[in-house]
Design brief:
single chain; about 375 residues; mainly beta; Lipoxygenase-1; 5-stranded antiparallel sheet; 4 helices
Length: about 375
């Protein structure tokens, strides 16, 4: 597979007809720049919490006409390019709640969130009832609109942008440490398969906005996007896409590829193998343009014991999959008081469990009373 830094060269997409398109929009959205992920030895200030997962959740109002089929994008930082919110199912329908993973290289910590700017690109008005900002699976900001908020470009009395500045968000009781957000700073030791699936879906959905005539297709099976565990380090993905044909039925496109996880010199990397499609041209496009976003979505290098001010750079092809701690999120053995469960090398620890979750870190072998684990506070979540 070619170096990912060369994927933004112009490519040709061949379907029923052939045409070429420039990939410049992807170049400016590239996540190839280095990202730093700080591993704190203790709880940092709330604004300095590192973000492992960033989501926007939106509720559409329930009355007729509240829904929209128009594209919607979001920005959270002045340096962001629009990130298009495009789930595989028919999102933004009446009385529906949709949750989107947002991939941006400019928001690595909570303090990097400068605003929420959500924009509709079209004249099919959309009425928003509620919006939530979710960081590391914890809702830190909620805004409800009693009469709904209209996003529309075809009405002088409405706005095409919903803008919420950070000074307003910071007034939220969850925009600081409390009993809900108390563990928001702790990094994950396991990346659930559902999280990886969601990242692939968000990356593909955003990318499809810049591709003429290609969209999510008809569902083949239970999901538009699915993955299954092949072995200890491989997930196999299946994407259902569609190509619009003038004066003829749309062409269904089935894209399959394996995402292989390896650990090289303490760094978790991913490689795409065995990819194929019912329409060859789209494979080269979708897979190669999705990967840059995927590979920077989690951040990090998995090596070393956390020390004060330790910073871990994220290079091309590296997935940051959290601290290499054991399953308890604790730095200390509650019995001996000594550091345990910290790996100097993730090579022997990386694996996909039976559910397809990516697990890092060796199981504890020196904890004599595992019942202690049940007494520890659980990580807060948004539910």
């Amino acid at each position: 597979m070619k170096n990912l830094r060369n994927i933004f060269l112009a490519m040709t997409l061949s379907m029923v007809t052939s045409y070429s398109f420039a990939t410049a929009p992807f170049a400016k959205n590239s996540l190839e720049d280095a990202i730093t992920f700080e591993i704190p030895p203790s709880r940092p200030a709330f604004k300095d919490v590192s973000i492992c997962r960033l989501q926007i959740q939106v509720k559409t109002n329930s009355f007729d006409g509240a829904q929209t089929d128009d594209p919607v994008s979001v920005r959270l930082n002045a340096r962001d390019n629009p990130f298009y919110l495009n789930l595989s199912h028919n999102d933004r329908e009446r009385n529906r709640t949709d949750t989107y993973d947002v991939l941006t290289p400019n928001v690595n910590k909570i303090k990097d969130i400068q605003f929420i700017q959500m924009k509709i690109h079209g004249s099919d008005g959309w009425n928003v009832r509620e919006i939530n900002l979710i960081v590391n699976n914890v809702t830190i900001y909620t805004r409800k609109f009693s009469n709904g908020y209209w996003l529309d470009t075809d009405n002088s009395k409405r706005q095409d942008v919903l803008y919420i500045p950070v000074r307003e968000m910071s007034k939220s009781s969850n925009y600081r440490y409390n009993n809900v957000t108390g563990n928001i700073w702790r990094g994950p030791t396991m990346v659930p398969k559902s999280f990886i699936d969601d990242l692939v879906e968000s990356a593909v959905g955003n990318s499809l906005n810049d591709v003429k005539k290609v969209s999510w297709g008809k569902k083949q099976g239970k999901y538009y996007i699915s993955s299954k565990r092949i072995n200890d380090n491989t997930l196999r993905f299946d994407l259902d896409l569609s190509y619009e044909v003038t004066a003829a039925p749309d062409v269904e496109i089935d894209v399959d590829f394996d995402l292989v996880f390896t650990c090289e010199n303490g760094v978790v990397k991913t490689t795409v193998k065995n990819y194929k499609t019912s329409r060859h041209g789209v494979t080269q496009y979708v897979v190669k343009n999705v990967l840059p976003k995927l590979k920077k979505a989690l951040y990090a290098k998995c090596t070393g014991i956390p020390e004060p001010a330790t910073k871990i750079a994220c290079y091309g092809g590296v997935w940051a999959v959290g601290y290499l701690l054991d399953f308890s999120f604790d730095y200390d053995d509650p019995i001996s008081g000594k550091d345990i469960g910290l790996n100097k090398d993730c090579t022997s620890a990386l694996s996909l469990n039976a559910n397809g979750d990516l697990v890092l870190g060796k199981k504890r072998t020196n904890l004599r009373n595992r019942a202690q684990l049940s007494k520890r506070p659980k990580v807060a979540n948004s539910k």
